[in-house]
Write a structure and sequence with these properties.
alpha+beta; Nucleoside Triphosphate Pyrophosphohydrolase; Arc Repressor Mutant, subunit A; two-stranded antiparallel ribbon
């Protein structure tokens, strides 16, 4: 039992999960089963328990509401507008993550009745201040492309350099020079050849690569 002279705000975590589907950036949303905003789409998240830290709370809520676990999460920002939650005074610590879509099997549980991927250019109205959280996460992703290997988190177990380049082009929404990109990607020394090849239709076989350590995002400069 906790009793304080001054009222304390509650703390939640909200998680922005990005993936690439059909070369488009997608966002994971859950449909809320409870008030407020019952029946509306929102970011996965919920209240932090008294006996857990922020990271643990974020991972638990993500697993409970979507079935996703074991992904790289990074703190994004703290949102604390006074009236951001109609229930009470709530401060939320937002996280974001990038995941390969081929490894994720969605399963809505607890206070979510559905979990679904949405293309960023075709989003439904979002509950709470989640549009603001999403906007900041997207800006952070674009900024980190320039100085980290964060986009590698989208990659499946094995991939070609062309597929890696398409990830960058999909996020930046611009074409990149093939030769320069390959030179840059290989110079990072964050990927390695698998010794296997992939052939598509009549094209030349392409070397397959893998990330050396999928649990880390390297800072490049």
């Amino acid at each position: 039992m906790y009793s304080y002279k001054h009222p304390h705000p509650s703390v939640t975590t909200d998680i922005v999960i990005f993936t690439l589907r059909e070369e488009k950036l997608n966002l994971l949303l859950i449909k809320r089963a409870v008030e407020p905003f019952k029946g509306q789409w929102a970011l996965p998240g919920g209240f932090v328990r008294m006996d857990e830290d922020l990271d643990s709370g974020a991972r638990r809520e993500l697993q409970e509401e979507t079935g996703i676990s074991g992904v790289f999460l990074e703190q994004l920002y703290t949102f604390g507008a006074v009236e951001r939650d109609p229930r009470e005074r709530v401060i939320t610590v937002a996280y974001y993550a990038l995941v390969p879509s081929d490894k994720i099997v969605l399963k809505a549980t607890t206070d979510a009745v559905d979990a679904k991927w949405f293309a960023l250019d075709d989003l439904p109205p979002l509950a709470f201040d989640h549009p603001e959280i999403l906007n900041m996460a997207r800006q952070r992703l674009l900024a980190k492309l320039d100085y980290s290997t964060i986009a590698f988190q989208f990659m499946p177990e094995t991939f070609t350099l062309t597929e890696l380049q398409r990830v960058y082009e999909s996020i930046l929404q611009e074409e990149m020079d093939k030769r320069n990109f390959r030179k840059w990607a290989l110079a990072l020394e964050q990927i390695e050849e698998t010794g296997e090849m992939r052939r598509k239709s009549a094209s030349r076989p392409a070397k397959l690569y893998r990330i050396k350590d999928h649990t880390k995002v390297e800072i490049l400069k």
